[in-house]
Specification:
287 residues, alpha/beta, globular
Length: 287
């Protein structure tokens, strides 16, 4: 369904006092569980595949595979098992070998309801970011991709790290501006950043204010850094009243999977047997 169908539903959810919740999915099972849980939208991109393969999410920013081709491959796993929830595709808008408008059309034909800018140069800084911007691989390509997607009636969720990026994406027509405060901490392959929830809230507030100044009707949600649990998200939203939700990726699938798998497998390793006097195991159902 089109963004014109989903956006009013998002507004109604917010008016009822419920947060807007998005979930990143790296597998069909994750997406199926997200829909069963009742999330409002699902996002799939190459980092999800790396994450659920036991690699850090930042692998999605490296040349370990073509991000746009990977998300198309993932669509065959995810889209058939999601029937009600809009699914957004992560698009690497700076890919010099993709005609982005044509690619967006293909994603729409596959069944994606919208897009998100990932991999994104907004997650890079310093000389690397400066060199990318100077050589034609800048954030402006991501802004233009979002503007094109909006014109195609696709939902758009956009990662941003700065106030300028928030303003640009809101002005381009982004439906959801995601205040990205860093790689999610905790777990086996998470970030070790010392950022506090208060710091994350302050950063989210700055991004919120910038986005809202550009366009009042944009949704602003929080993501990443120390916001790793439902309680963390609740606390940040309490500290930033204008923010209306949370997009989780590692926090939605990697961290829960790590906990559940380790706990269950550990319980299996504690299963005991009754040895015989000579140390061998009895055989036979009644032995």
């Amino acid at each position: 369904m089109s963004r014109q169908h989903h956006v009013p539903l998002f507004r109604e959810r917010i008016r009822s006092g419920r947060a807007l919740i998005g979930a990143g999915a790296g597998t069909g099972l994750s997406a199926k569980c997200a829909e069963e849980a009742g999330v409002d939208f699902i996002v799939i991109y190459n980092a999800g595949r790396f994450r659920m393969a036991g690699r850090g999410s930042m692998a999605g920013m490296m040349p370990y595979g073509n991000a746009n081709d990977i998300v198309v491959e993932m669509s065959a796993e995810v889209l058939p098992v999601v029937s009600r929830t809009p699914v957004l595709a992560g698009v690497c808008a700076t890919d010099p070998f993709k005609n982005i408008p044509l690619f967006l059309g293909r994603l729409k034909e596959l069944g994606f309801a919208g897009v998100q800018n990932f991999p994104s140069v907004c997650l890079l800084d310093g000389s690397v970011r400066a060199d990318l911007e100077a050589t034609g691989y800048g954030f402006d390509k991501e802004v233009e991709m979002v503007r094109t997607a909006r014109e195609m009636d696709m939902l758009t969720a956009t990662y941003v790290r700065t106030e300028d990026e928030a303003r640009d994406m809101a002005a381009a027509g982004a439906d959801i501006v995601v205040a990205h405060v860093g790689l999610t901490t905790a777990g086996m392959i998470g970030s070790t950043s010392p950022m506090s929830l208060a710091d994350a809230a302050a950063r989210t507030a700055q991004i919120h204010d910038a986005a809202k100044a550009a366009r009042e009707d944009v949704f602003v949600v929080c993501h990443g850094g120390p916001i790793a649990t439902p309680d963390d998200a609740q606390e940040v939203l309490r500290m930033v009243p204008g923010a209306v939700g949370f997009l989780g990726a590692s926090s939605m699938e990697r961290l829960p999977a790590e906990t559940a798998l380790v706990d269950t497998m550990r319980r299996f390793t504690e299963v005991s047997i009754t040895p015989t006097d000579d140390g061998s195991q009895r055989t036979g159902a009644l032995a």
